């Protein structure tokens, strides 16, 4: 059984690697976003509580996230383990997962330098109607600034603007440095295996590094 946590800054390629790891290990991906959407759609008492919190614009508490995780891990597809993407975000959440007696086997950090993240994300351009993505350097449209298929203008999302990316990276570093320390100590004590891979490599190169360690 493999219970894996995947850490990494926004824009590091966690989503792509998470899908590849899930296929490799035959485990489901567990993310807070998916769990919250599923809870709301279920119409359960917990789902209704989540819906009210989200509608009010408040943050869902660690306690509720913990309840959703506990419920999710009872499902049959978690028999071989699971991959946590986006959870935990803080040492408080990490301690909560430890208190729930989830035996994590691996914690993977995808590392990418801040300047590379800013370059990756600020170069993104999106066609609003379809969601088609481009990158001004790595995957440019045929005509600069315009969608290949519709010919309509591309936009830069607010989340991808350099100043926004830098703010998000600041939050990530504030929260994640204590997290990596938390799991490094657990790794040194022999409870799990913590390792870091270079996320500036190609998708296949990053996955090869991860699969060797797993």
CATH topology: Rossmann fold
Q: Identify the CATH homologous superfamily.
A: P-loop containing nucleotide triphosphate hydrolases
How would you describe the shape?
globular
Strand content: 5-15%
Which key terms come to mind for this protein?
single chain, alpha/beta, Rossmann fold, two-stranded antiparallel sheet, 15% strand
Summarize the structure.
With 214 residues, this protein is of the alpha/beta class. Helices cover 48% and strands 15% of the residues. A hairpin with a 6-residue loop joins strand 5 (124-126) and strand 6.
Structure description:
The protein is an alpha/beta fold. The chain has one domain: P-loop containing nucleotide triphosphate hydrolases (Rossmann fold, 3-Layer(aba) Sandwich), CATH 3.40.50.300. 48% of the residues lie in helices and 15% in strands. The protein has helices spanning 14-25, 32-42, 45-56, 62-72, 91-99, 114-122, 162-188, 203-213; strands spanning 2-7, 29-31, 81-85, 106-111, 124-126, 133-135, 193-198. Strand 5 and strand 6 form a beta hairpin. Helix 2 (32-42) packs across helix 4. The longest helix has 27 residues, at 162-188. It is globular and about 55 Å long.
């Amino acid at each position: 059984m493999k219970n894996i946590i995947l850490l990494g800054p926004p824009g590091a390629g966690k989503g792509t690697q998470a899908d590849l790891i899930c296929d490799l290990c035959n485990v489901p991906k567990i993310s807070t976003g998916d769990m919250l959407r599923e809870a709301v759609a279920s119409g359960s008492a917990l789902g209704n509580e989540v819906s009210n919190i989200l509608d009010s614009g408040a943050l869902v508490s660690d306690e509720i996230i913990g309840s959703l995780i506990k419920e999710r891990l009872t499902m049959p597809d978690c028999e071989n383990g699971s991959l946590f993407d986006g959870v935990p975000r803080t040492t408080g959440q990490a301690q909560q997962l430890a208190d729930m007696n989830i035996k994590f086997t691996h914690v993977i950090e995808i590392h990418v330098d801040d300047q590379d993240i800013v370059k990756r994300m600020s170069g993104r351009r999106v066609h609003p109607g379809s969601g088609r993505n481009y990158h001004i350097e790595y995957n440019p449209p045929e005509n600069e600034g315009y969608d290949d298929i519709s010919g309509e203008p591309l936009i830069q999302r607010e989340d991808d603007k350099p100043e926004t990316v830098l703010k998000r990276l600041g939050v990530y570093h504030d929260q994640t440095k204590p997290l990596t320390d938390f799991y490094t100590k657990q790794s040194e004590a022999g409870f799990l295996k913590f390792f870091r891979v270079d996320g500036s490599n190609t998708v296949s190169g990053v996955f090869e590094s991860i699969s060797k360690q797993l």
